Fold each of these.
Amino acid sequence: MADVILSEDLVELGITETEKEAAIKVLADKMMAKGLVKDGYYENVVKREEVFPTGLPTVIPVALCHTEAKYVNQSAMAVGTLTQPVAFHEMGAPERDIRAEIIFLLALKDPKDQISYLKEMVTVFKSKEILEAIRDATDKKALIALLKEFF
Amino acid sequence: MAKRKLTVLAVCGSGVVSSSMIAQKVEDMLSSLGVDVEVIGLLPTSVESYVDRGGIDFVVTTSPIPGDIAVPVIKGVALLTGFGEDAVIEEIKKTAQEILAED
C-alpha cells in the first residue's frame, strides 16, 4: 500500500472556527505548508463539499473532506477536532446537516492503491470509543499514536 | 447460490473515496454468501449511461444519482456510519438473491 502521511504537524486540536470553510482551511494550510498538496487544493475541497458533501452522521459526527488526486503531491491525512461542532451537509442527503466534531481531511494521490486505508477509516467511523478518543485528545503525539494503530 | 457473477456499481462524488469504502463491504458480504461479484466505482453523473449500456445488476451509492436508473439503487451511507447498516446489508443481500433467482 502506498504511504499516507499522518504526522503531528497535520493535526490541530480544538479548532475554534465555526464555519466549515474556515475549519477546513486550518487543516488544508498544514498540508500546503508541507508541500503535500498543490495550489487550488483547498478551494477545490470546499467546492466539492458543496456538490458532494462528506458529513457523516456517525456516533460522533465527522466530515471526510477530500478532492481530486490532481491537486495532491503526496498522500496524507490531516485531522482536526472542533471546539464547537461545525455544520456540514450530510453525505447522500445534502438537504440535511450534521454537526461535525472531527474533520478528517484526505489528500490521496491514488485512492485505488489506498483501499485498505479507506477500509480502516470505516472501522474508525463505526467505533464510539475511537471517535471519542480522537475528539477528546489533548496531545497530538498521543493522537497520532492512536491513529497509527489503525492506519 | 453460486450462479453467475454479479456486477455492481459503487457510486460516490469522487468515484473513488467513499465508493471504495462501500465496494469493499459489498464484496465481503456477497462473497460470504458465495456470490461472485465485481464492484466498479463510478461518478454519479456517469451512472445512467453506464447502466443503459447493460450488464449492471444494481447500484450502491453515497450520493444522489441524477437521471432514470433502470436497476435497483441502494443508499449506502449507512455502511460507513453503522447506523441502519443492518437494513442496508439485508437490502443488498435480498436484491442480489432476487436477481440471481430470476436467472
Amino acid sequence: MRFLFKTAYEQDLGVFRDAVQRNWYVALLAGLLVLPRLVPEYLVDLSLVFIYGLCGLSLMVLAGYTGLVSLGHAAFLGVGAYAHVFFTQSLGLPWVVAVALAATLTAAAGVLVGLPALRMTGVYLTIATLAFALIIQEVFARWEHVTGGLRGRAVDKPVVFGVPLGGDVAFYFLCLAVLAGGLWLTANLLRSPTGRAWVAIRDSEIAAQSMGVNLALYKTMAFAYSAALMGVAGALFAHKIGFLAPDIFSVLLSIQLLLMVVVGGLGSLHGALFGAVFVALLPVAISQARDAVPAWVGGVAGLLGKSAGDAAFAAADRFVKQPGLEPGIFGLILVLFILFEPLGIYGRWLKVKLYFSMFPLYKQATFRRQKAYMRSERLR
Amino acid sequence: MSLLVAADLGINFGGIRALDGVGFAVEPGEVFTIIGPNGAGKTTIFNLISRIYDPHQGRLTFAGEDITRVSAHQIARRGIARTFQNIELFQHATVLQNLLLGRHAHRRTRFLEELLFLPGARRQELAHREAVERVIDFLDLQPHRDSFIANLPYGVRKVVEMGRALCMAPRLLLLDEPSSGLSVEETEDMAFWIQDIRTLLGITVLMVEHDMSLVSAVSDHVLALNYGRVIARGTAREVQEHPDVIKAYLGG
C-alpha cells in the first residue's frame, strides 16, 4: 500500500492526486494516441465513446454532483446538433464559432428549463425535463426551414480552421481533444467554490443555504453548464451520425444517457467516462455476439449430435435476432447494477483497487453501508 | 449595542402558535442560551434567524441592520453561521470539502476564473485552505481531513459541523443542541470549545441546549421558553430555580 505524504496545500489543488496518478493518465493518453493504428476498424465507435463521454460529463455535473436528475438531456443534445448544423451550413459561420454559439444557445435553453425547475425537487423536476424534451422534439419536427422537419437534414464533414477533419482518424482526434478540454474545465469547476456549492446542494440544500449558497443561482448555473457541454457534444454528434432527424433525440436516448452515469457511477468524473465506454461499446459487443453466439451454441450442442446442434443453432439464432434484444439487455444491466453495485463501474473499480492494495487484509465490511442517522425532515 | 435583537417574534404553523411575542437581545461576546421542553419553539427561533421561515410578526435586527426580510443565503454574508440539531453535513464529501464550503460566503472569484482555474482562483483556494487549517487545528480534526463524513462517528460529525460554521469566521454562531447524541466526555469537550470560541475567537454564541450542566458551565444569559412564550430569563442559576421553569419541565 502506498501512502501519500502531503507537505503543501498545493498538493490538494492539483487535477491529479500525485505524480504517479498523473503518469498513469499520461500513459492512457499515449495509448489513445496510438489506438487508431491498432484498431482502425473500431475508430468510429471510439469517437462515439468520446462524444458520449462529453454527454456523461454533462449529466454527471447535473445529476451526479448537483443532484438534479434530468430526463431531457437528449433535447439539449438535439438543440446543440441542430444549432451547429444551422450555423455552419445555413449561415456559413466558421466551425469554432458555430460550436461556441451552439453551446451558448443550449446553455440558454438550460437556464430556461432550470428556472421553473428551481421550485421543483426530485421526481417532479425529472418529469418537467421530460416534458421539455418532448416539446423540443416536436419543435425539431415542425420547424422545417431550420431543422428540415421529418425529412431530416444531412450534415457536412467538419472543417476546422480550414482543415477538413472528416476522416475517421482526424475526427477521432477532434473528439478526443474536445473531451479532454471538457474534462479539464469540469475538473476546474469541481475543485473551486462552484463545484463545492453543487455538491452541497446535492447533499443538503438547507445547510448549503445557511452557508451562503444561493440555491437558485447555483442550480441554474449547473443547468446552464450541463446544457452547454451537451451542446458541444451535440455538434460532434451531428458530424458523427451525418444525418439529423427528430426521432434520434427521443426520450429513449435521454434514458440511455442517464443510464450511462448511473452505470458508470454517480458522483465521479471517472464514472461518466466508464459509463460512456459501456453505453457506446455495448451495442458493438451485442452485434458481434449476434454473429458469434449461435455458432458457439450450435458447436457446443453439436457434440451431442448433428440434429441437436442444428436445432440449438436455429434457436439461438432466433433469440439473438429478436428486435428488442438491445434495450432489453440495457435494462437488465441497469437493474443488476442498481441491485448489486449502486456506485456503478467506478465503485467496483475502487473496490478492486483497494482489494489489491490491501491484500491480504481486505475486509468486505469496508464498503458495507453504515446505518444512516436521521436528518431533520421538519424543514422540507 | 446588542449584536442581535429579536423583538416580538411570532409565527404560526397552521393553527399552532409556535412563537408568541418572543423578544430577547444578545450582547456581543456573550454565550446566550435558549432552553425549554420539546416543542417550545427553540429551533423555530433559529430557523427564523437563518431565514428559513418568515415570521408573521416581529423584527430581527443584527448589528443594527434589519434582517427580517433578508434572503436566506445572504444571512451567511452578514456573519451568522449555524449548526443543525440532526447534523446537516454533506455526506458524500470529505471533511476538508465540508469545511471549505464554510468559506463559501467569502468567495470572491467569478465563474470564468474558476472554469479556467486562473491564478486568482488558485490563490483564493490557498487562502481558504489556510483559514480552514486554523479551524482544523482549533478543533483537533487533523486525523479526519480526508475522511468521508459517512464513515465518521457521530461525535466527530458534530465537531465537523461546528467547524464548518467556524470556517465562515462568523460574528454570531448559532448552535442547535451541540451536545445532543454526545457522550459525557464529548459534552465536556464541547463546553471547553464553546468557551474558547467566545474568549479566543471572540465569536458571540447563541445556543439551544438541553444538557443543564453544559448550559450552566458556559452561558452568560439564559432564556426559557414554553409553548412559544418566554417564561423566564436571567443567569443559568436564576432560570433553573424559576418556579415556572420547574413547572414546565416537571409538570404540575
